[in-house]
Amino acid sequence: MTQPTVADVAKAPIMAFITALLTVTIVVLPLGVSAQWPPYPTPNAPRAASGQPDLEAPALRTADGHPDLTGVWQYVRREGLPARRNGPFGQPLPGTDQFWDIATGMKEPIPFRASAAEVLRQRMADNSKDNPDAHCLPLGVMQLHTHPDPRRIVQTPRLVVMLWEANGSVRQIFTDGRPLPNNDPQPWYLGYSVGRWDGDTLVVETTGFRDDGWLDVFGTPLTSAAKVTERFRRMNFGTLDIEVTVDDPKAYTKPWTVTIRQRIMLDTDLMEFICQENEKSSRYF
Amino acid sequence: MDVKVLAAVAVFASVATAAPVAAHHSFAAEYDAGKPVTIAGVVTKIEWTNPHARFYIDARDDSGAVRSWEFELGSPNSLMRRGWTRNSLKPGDSVSVEGFVARKDPHVANARSVTLSDGKKVFAGSSFDTQTP
After folding, report:
1. How far is it, in rounded angstroms, from Cα A78 to Cα A105?
2. B64 to chain A, closest Cα gap in Å
3. Which helix (H) or strand (E) holds A241?
4. Is A213 in contact with A35 (CB distance < 8 Å)?
5. What is the ipTM of this complex?
6. Where does the pLDDT of residue A120 fall: very low under 50, low under 70, confident under 90, or very high at 90 and above?
7. Domain ranges across chain A
8. Best A24, A26, A91 residue to mutate vs chain B (most B CBs within 10 Å)
9. Domain A60-75+110-275 falls in which CATH fold?
10. pLDDT tens, residue by residue, A7-46
11. 3-state percent breakdown (helix, strand, coil) of chain B, nearest 5
12. Residue B7 is inside which H or E element, if any?
């Protein structure tokens, strides 16, 4: 299956975009400070005598012995990896990230069925104007994992809660031994998730998705036939890897897997984000 | 103008270390990267609201007539993590804004940087800078 290319959908705007990227030079240093409230130190963070956190220290564990995924996490952009698509003249484009293109860095192309490739092509041709996020609707699990805004994981013995600043989304992952539902439940943006521990890995299986999912801003689709399996591994105190396998026979010819990396954010908390407060962008789509 | 705070975030590019900022929508869905614009004027209103902060300025066009411009910033949360506050811009401030014009309205734009009256240039949390390609 040949994947859609940028050349197929938007030659002139992309060239102008690249030109602008190369010619405009202002960037900023991230300060890591918050003007929202005074920073409050994250408890239990391993630190040197100087107060510097030791991000390479072993992952913390809960009382029941499992790695503790609890914390505020930030997606790590995969800078420098090749973009999936080439430019209008076949030239490589600047590296993108998984939030925009979930295939960023994948060695094998995503095994699209023709229908799913057409969905992606149309969404890109529309400049992603119908991405749920652009209309203050929930983004779905994959975009929430890769969104630049922070998220908090709260781990308890029977339930893992994920709170996303982006769109104020909330997710329950049941780790109390229950199975996935088999009674044709109402489809949800985030689906229905159950988790179990496999050694030091939290394995989460999710079904019950809506049929119109977006795995990235470009619009890589996810359908109601999907089963998504996530493997959460806290590699050390500072690093969380999430290996995500998408098994969606309606959209793809075989399952495919990506790994998303997040890093701990210390001494900070989530902020309120109410997308509907003053949404004006969609006037101009 | 809270110069101290804004001065803290004002840098001129020499190293590319921009952190990701919130991206509520696709830049290309609303704005035209092929239509950069620089507009100088006086701030008339600030909307420190989600999903994007916005501000409005009055600026003179080539004929001397005053036109109102609307500029979109990043989300308040992403701006606050960079040191902005809801008081960083105030009505009456003279600013110069670099950005990109909306596809469907010639006086709406995405702000990429704001040059304050003291000459400091601050990052505006533009979705342009987070979206490659």
Report:
1. 8
2. 27
3. strand A239-247
4. no
5. 0.75
6. very high
7. 60-75+110-275
8. A26
9. Lipocalin (2.40.128)
10. 333 333 333 333 333 333 233 333 344 456 778 889 889 9
11. 15, 40, 45
12. helix B3-9
